[in-house]
Amino acid sequence: MLVAEDEALIRMDLVEMLEEDGYAVVGQAGDGQTAVRLATELRPDLVVLDVKMPVLDGLSAAEQIVAARIAPVVILTAF
To answer: How would DSSP label each residue in 3-59?
Structure first.
């Protein structure tokens, strides 16, 4: 699984929760552009993306990841 979230503390908490539940987090990104690059390189089974991120937002990153048939995407946001 790849986790992309620009808020470092939220990203760390999310990764910790996922790993405690037995999921393997193979990569982490702080922006959408890095998420697309890592998804392409790592080919995770699932990508979890925050909506609002710098450089490239989560929706645009999701479009690229899905269009390239890299992995399913789950969009995450907190208001």
So the answer is: EE-SSHHHHHHHHHHHHHTT----EEESSHHHHHHHHHHH--S-EEEESS-SSS-HH
- How far are the Cα atoms of 13, 48, 64, 75 from residue 60, in angstroms, in the given order? 24, 13, 6, 11
**33: nearest Cα among 69, 60, 7:** 60
pTM, two decimals, is 0.94
Tens digit of pLDDT for each residue in 25-37?
A: 999 999 999 999 9
The domains of the chain, with CATH numbers, are: 2-76 (3.40.50.2300)
